[in-house]
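Appendix B. Chain record.
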Amino acid sequence: MSEQKHTAQQFAQEIANPSELVQLRHALKDLVFFPKKIARSQLAGNQRSAFRGRGMDFEEVRHYQPGDDVRSIDWRVTARTRTPHTKVFREERERPILVIADLRRPMLFGSEQLKAQSVCQLSTALAWSGIQANDRVGAMLFGTRQQIDIRPRRSHHTVLQLINSLQTLCADLIEQPEDKYRLSNIIEETRRIAHPGTSVFLVSDFHDLDDSCQENLYELAKHCDVTLCHIFDGLEKELPPPGNYPVVVNGIRQSLNTRNQKMREHCVEVFSNRREQLKLLAARLRMGWLELCTDQSVPALLQRSYGKRRARA
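Structure tokens predicted for this chain:
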């Protein structure tokens, strides 16, 4: 029993490697990561603005209306149109970030690395980026048998707590043979916990997405800014040429025979259908969308999606 526990701890150290996850912090410094929640209000927000004095960001120019601040009149547009126009500003409000990490048994699959490792890397990177953006960051982690909740705080200790909790659930992956939670349970619990205005990042492979999941996502997206973070392995998207290949399934090294043509077509079809369903769902509910293959670099993915150049575009 002690040997099995030692093996589980070793496995957790490899999948949720503390030094690697802490180092992610330094690779994310140049990101303009999160789109800020905006509210037209007289209350000062917690975010810094490029416009000094007002603490607000410019939003648009519109026709001047009685009661508008004359200091905000756009004199260039007014002179060009010969009609008074005023600048409209918007304030940034604090917005907590909630990372939902799926570490159930299907995450014990991978060719380059396990999907569980990609979940740990992306979840931690999201948390570091939130802290660096001066947002409060929390998490809900779902493993084979337990759920771990981390209260949103504006502290790097939150991320260290997240890393420790990820290790705990990774150890459970090879100790517990069955999953207690379904994806629908995870999303329903997220609905219960997430406060309106929260930015929710759901990190999963979505293998058991069903109608109940979609209904709960619909309700969640009404009040929260949701981003679906799809984790997958390259073998799911496209099988290699016919032959035998080493893979890891449920933490056990196995050989994958890709010579059967029907099996090849079925695997590609299942993945393509699920991926398309997720993308359509994200578009329909106006949710964010991120995809991470297990052989991809997390900082590179986030740089492409949220880097400074893209933020200016």
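Further analysis of this model is presented in Appendix C.
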